[in-house]
Amino acid sequence: MAANDINSNISSGSAGKQPDADTLRTGQETPPADSLTGSVDPKEQAGSRDENGTPDITELGNPGKPQGEAGRQMLERMNDSHYHVTGWALDKMDLAEACSILDIGCGSGLTLSRMAEAAPEAHLTGVDYSPVSVRLTEETNRPYINSGRMDVKEASVSRMPFDDGSFDRIITVESFYFWPEPVEDLREVRRVLREGGRFFLVMDIYENGNLSEHARGNIEKYDLFVPTIGEFHRLFEEAGFRETSIHTIFDKDWICVEGIK
Q1: Domain for residue 99, yes or no?
Q2: For 125, 128, 141, 221, which has the most beta carbons within 10 A of its beta carbon?
Q3: What would the mean pLDDT of 39-46 be, rounded to a whole number?
Q4: Reported pTM
């Protein structure tokens, strides 16, 4: 477990249990202050405009489904803004043991690239329903795709083109805010996960009662779904995961929800 990480491990029958004080760990890790809301850059305010009154690149690019040149620029910028929270979650995945890995909402493809380096024996797959994201992911990972180690599909999380039990590790970073049917979509994730496989849902914000005015402005502006810890437990239980673990950072709004099939 990472230092300063709070980890609540429960069976799926104990939905809603909060991490207790005994699970707190302290150490040297001090996560960089790069928190954002969804695909929204933390340096931007909700409703911001440039000096000419033009909507910012996030608004133009559509964080829910990146589109056009603005969407491409937004995804490339997210490589920096999501880098540390993604790395924090990747450290929990035991990637060296993985054989088949899926990234849902693969965006720019950088997370896939990082996992390919960490899991040299694994086959990796990315899925995204944005054609802009699919193209950028393919460009980012062309050597892995050409070698047969990786493939990328254009599809929605609600209906993924994979057989049951196809993957032993699945991750989604900063995409759950936009999933159309959270419980049903989590069931679809569970369907393509192997028995005993692990799913990691990563967000750099969750409802903890202490969100900033900036964060709440972006939640409203982009209509983001931001559950509490208890709600995450309930969602994963309803989706059929047999065990759910919640990882958080003591002084950050980051959350990594781990579900085991």
Answers
A1: yes
A2: 128
A3: 38
A4: 0.79
